[in-house]
Amino acid sequence: MQIDFAAKELTVKLVYYGPALSGKTSNLRAIHWLGTSSACGELMTLETQNDRTLFFDMLPITVSSGTGLKVRLKLFTVPGQVMHNATRRLVLQGTDGVAFIADSQRSEADANRESFLNLKRNLQENKIDPDQIPIIIQFNKRDMSSIRTDEELELIAQRSKEPIYKAVATRGYGVMQTLRGLIRDTWAKLEDDHQLEEKFGISPIRFMTEVEAKLKHDPGPRGR
Amino acid sequence: MMHDQTDAADIMMGDVVRLEDVLSRDSVTSVCRSFFSLFGLPVRVITHEGDLLADVHRDQPLCNYLNTLDAGERECAKTVGVVRDLEPELQTTVHPCFTGAVYRIVPLEYQGRPIGRFIVGPYVPAETTQPPASLLSIDAPIDSAAACEHFETMPRVREHIAKKISDHLKGVLELLLFSGHRAQLASTMQVASVRENYRELAEKNEALKSSLDELKQLDQLKSTFLATVSHELRSPLTSIIGYTEMLESGAAGALSDGQAEFLGTIRSKADQLLGLISSLLDLGRLEANSLDLKHQSVDAHALLSDLAATIVPTANRRNVSLDVQVGDQTPKLWGDPVRLSQILLNLADNAVKFSDEGGTVTIRAERGEIDAAGASGLGAALFSASRPAVVLTVEDGGMGIAEQSLSKIFDAFYQVDAGTTRVHGGAGLGLSIVKQLVDGHEGKIEVTSTPGEGTTFVVTLPAADEDA
Question: With an 8 Å Cβ cutoff, are A55 and B193 in contact?
Answer without folding.
Answer: yes
